[in-house]
Amino acid sequence: xxxxxxxxxxxxxxxxxxxxxxxxxxxxxxxxxxxxxxxxxxxxxxxxxxxxxxxxxxxxxxxxxxxxxxxxxxxxxxxxxxxxxxxxxxxxxxxxxxxxxxxxxxxxxxxxxxxxxxxxxxxxxxxxxxxxxxxxxxxxxxxxxxxxxxxxxxxxxxxxxxxx
Length: 164
Prior knowledge:
The protein contains six helices and three strands, in the order ααβααββαα. The chain is mostly helical. The protein has a domain of 106 residues: Winged helix-like DNA-binding domain superfamily/Winged helix DNA-binding domain (Arc Repressor Mutant, subunit A, Orthogonal Bundle).
């Protein structure tokens, strides 16, 4: 197989440009894991372009959303919910605190742990990012199709829950 994705359409690289026809993907073209990764990369790049329009990092959207929906969430709870280890989430939280989007308060019961809440500026930023995310989701819905959306989400959640 050359640079096609198995359907005769050219595979896209990380930045959306076409991959040279001389590239042979072999069994990767049919492997779910590889194609899942390529789809995730493409979707992330597309959302990145939308969020950069408002001067924000796309990686902040899930963090801000989880804090907004769970006022007072601990950093440990947040790391579990976001599917990230605490050490990789800490710099993100520190950046959001430094920028005045999140406030971090020590817990009374455990002085080593913090509760997180959005500030007014954090809520404003989340509103802007949510608009970007909705436009991005509409594009994904166009690609996947509304008829297949529910099943597609169910399969993604099943992979996340059951993968070893």
